[in-house]
Amino acid sequence: MSVTYTSPSQILREDCAFLKPQPRIHNQRLTIQHWQLRDLITCPNSSEEFIYVNQNSVNGYNTRTRVTTQIMKDLSFPPTSLTAACGYLAAGGQRSQLMVKQINSNWYAHTTVGGSINNALCISEHLGGTRLLISNNDETIKVYSLPGLQRLTSIQLPTAVNYASVSPDGRKMVAVGDSNQVFLYDISVAGGYQKIGTYTATTEASFSCAWNQSSEKFAVASQDGYVSVWDVRHSEKLCKLGSKQQPQTKGATRCVKFSSSGSIDLLLYSEHVSYVNLVDARTFNDRQVVRVAPLNSDEHISGIAMSPDSKVCFVGMEHSVLEFDVDTITRRSFPSGSLI
């Protein structure tokens, strides 16, 4: 089905504070290889550690001990994409390069998957196994098994694929690319991918998408400065959220994430430079806009990540990582609500 949405963006109250002020600053350098691909920091296991890209290495950093560890060093390529989940870490490059490592063992593998830029990576579980999905500029999503790196299938789309995300329950996948279309897939028990919906985001390409922890809602971040949200139980768009600097290029929404703890219920998205936005993912009526760059200059944002317990939010800059505490007590005391 095709859905077109033209109503105005969501009206938001901005007098809330989901993040506590005064972030902790970690002097770690993060490098951006492609001006539109900004998902280069992740926090898969603990609020005390994040993983990030620095030149031709992927490093881990412990925020308590302030020790940096090279997890992938001296790669033959500077990563354009990064993900970590299910005990694995993967990095992709501009010429279809791929490096995968099991985080708690010495196992690793590297290959080229064909095509062009590996724009984004997604690791998910399926029927007791683990899969790696590679969003490529050659208009495909390549699906591999882990740890065997056996190609299971290749999903053809009508545009270069910039991002794909599998729902936490493993039953759905959403993908976006160099058009304003959003593609929703059903993942069968047998492991096949069947397209069940095509939606319209806004007017330009999208570079990030994410699911909430209940697998009921997904969000898409677009270059024209909007985040669109849908509920899989309804065809109409749930809401459209703007950025602080929209419609300027620096207000492009580059990365979007949901908190993984249901009691926190936050939607987080970054802009091209200087600002991150947090929205109440229960009602989508309340937003906090946080300037993460100095007042007198803009700074590029390389990625955003929330800890698995949703107590900490990390914002990657080019020369540092900001660590914000989430006001979890206030979030857990909020009444639950819904737009539906």
From TrEMBL:
Keywords for this entry? WD repeat
Q: What is this protein called?
A: DUF2415 domain-containing protein
Which InterPro entries does the entry link to?
DUF2415, WD40/YVTN_repeat-like_dom_sf, WD40_repeat_dom_sf, WD40_rpt
Q: Do you know which PANTHER family this protein is assigned to?
A: DUF2415 DOMAIN-CONTAINING PROTEIN (PTHR43991:SF9), WD REPEAT PROTEIN (AFU_ORTHOLOGUE AFUA_8G05640)-RELATED (PTHR43991)
Say which species the protein is native to.
Mortierella alpina (Oleaginous fungus)
Q: Which Gene3D superfamilies match?
A: YVTN repeat-like/Quinoprotein amine dehydrogenase
Annotated ranges, domain DUF2415? 251-290
Can you say where the WD repeats lie in this chain?
Answer: 199-240
